[in-house]
Structure formats: structure tokens, C-alpha cells
Amino acid sequence: MSRRRSSMMSNELKEQIAQELGFAGTLHQEGFGGVSSRDCGNMVKMAIELAERNLPGNRMS
């Protein structure tokens, strides 16, 4: 039985990060199947960094 998890990141956030990392074209043409493991890992790393920056108490003035 296959279990499908719902995404923790919105599609908008995924597209924004892919754009910043420079592989948005590949993502649009081939989907995540065409994106390298390294790029996916970098996407997750950037999403974690963004989330940590937005935690309460981590706001920079």
C-alpha cells in the first residue's frame, strides 16, 4: 500500500526557492523527477533556513 504524504511546503514556496537556486526551468519542464538530488537537498536546506529566521525570537530589527 502506497502512502502519499501531503507537502509541508506550498507550491509557491517551492517555486520561489527553485527560482533563487536557479533550477526553476528544469522544475517547470520536467517536474521534480528532473531535478537533481543535490538541488532538492539545497531546496530543503534553504526552506529550513527561512523557517528558522521566521521563528519567534529570531527576528532581526
Number of E-type strands: 0
Shape: globular
Low-confidence regions: none
Radius of gyration using CA atoms only: 14 Å
What's the helix count?
3
Amino- and carboxy-terminal Cα gap: 49 Å
Pattern of helices and strands: HHH
Structural class: mainly alpha
The percentage of residues in β strands lies in under 5%
Largest beta-sheet characterization? none
Walk me through the structure.
InterPro entries: SASP_sf_alpha/beta. This is Small, acid-soluble spore protein, alpha/beta type. There is one protein chain. This protein has 61 residues and is mostly helical. It has one domain (11-53). Helices cover 57% and strands 0% of the residues. The chain is built from three helices and no strands. The model has no long low-confidence stretch (mean pLDDT 87).
Task: Please outline what is shown here.
The chain is mostly helical and 61 residues long. The chain has three helices and no strands. The model has no long low-confidence stretch (mean pLDDT 87).
Question: Features of this protein?
Answer:
61 residues, mainly alpha, 3 helices, 57% helix, globular, Small, acid-soluble spore protein, alpha/beta type, SASP_sf_alpha/beta
